[in-house]
Amino acid sequence: MGGGKQGVMVVEMPNSSGQNPITQLQNKFKELEIGFKGWLAKQSLPVEAAVVTATSGLQGAAIGGFMGTLTQDVSSSLPTPPPAANLNPQAMASFQQAQALAGGPLVQARNFAVMTGVNAGISCVLKRIRGKEDVQSSMAAAFGSGALFSLVSGMGGPNPVPNALTSGIFFALVQGGLFELGRKFSQPPAEDTHYARTRSMLSSLGLQNYEKNFKKGLLTDNTLPLLTDSALRDVRIPPGPRLLILDQIKRDPELRKRQG
């Protein structure tokens, strides 16, 4: 008789935790993003500015390349004046502007890379130096990106420098207006005004999910210079984010001054 115990085959199903694969991928990406931002925050200003400019430029190039595929047909339909054509400077400048705005994928990738890369690089430098993001920094970054875009794209025509200044001023006014408009329509509740600097710091580190921990512990902007590891532990913030937050506070010139 086969009275022996029969073995039971246990088949381990993939993803036994029951977590959605998309959620797992998002969490993994979030961990990489937090790690990258933490590494970047520890670098010197030139390194951080170079990395931010390069990564933003690559993102802009990808967007510009895609947009260029949509405008390629328009660019090819523009008539090309013969070399001997006697066009007045105003007509030639208008033609160059049309080419810059309706270029193919490579042209638009270059233009968008310049705009996004320069904007992000200047914003990064001003944020590290001034310790905050405001409308002045936003307009300065937009001016630089607009001026360089004008020079690189050839939209300046026969007067590149004056037109570059004009484009920079236009970009600065538009971005400054959008910054103020966005701030006006996204005013936080009255109690959240005590966490404005905290929110900005957590967002720059990719740790915005821990804002609620700060609020539960009443760790307002005024307490930032006083924060310790034990205080962050009391509001249930894990070790990794605690280290990033304390390191960021040490690097902030204004908070360092208040600590002293």
**Low-confidence region ranges:** none
Assign an overall shape. Answer: globular
Work out the number of β strands. Answer: 0
| H and E order | HHHHHHHHHHH
Oligomeric state as shown: single chain
Rg of Cα set: 26 Å
| Total discrete domains | 2
**Count of helix runs:** 11
Mean pLDDT: 79
Structure explained in plain terms:
The chain is mainly α and 260 residues long. It has two domains: 41-74 and 94-186, no CATH class; 195-258, DNA polymerase, domain 1, CATH 1.10.150. Helix content is 69%, strand content 0%. It is built from eleven helices and no strands. It starts with 20 loop residues before the first helix and ends with a helix. Probable component of a protein-conducting channel made of HP30-1, HP30-2 and HP20 that mediates the import of transit sequence-less proteins into the chloroplastic inner membrane. Interacts with CEQORH. Residues 198-251 form the SAM domain. Pfam families: SAM_1, Tim17.
In short:
The protein is an all-alpha fold.
Descriptive keywords:
11 helices, 260 residues, DNA polymerase, domain 1, protein transport, globular, mainly alpha, 0% strand, 2 domains
Helix-strand blueprint:
Elements: H1 21-41, H2 45-77, H3 89-101, H4 105-130, H5 135-153, H6 160-185, H7 196-205, H8 211-216, H9 229-234, H10 239-251, H11 253-259
Helix pairs in contact: 2-4, 4-5, 5-6
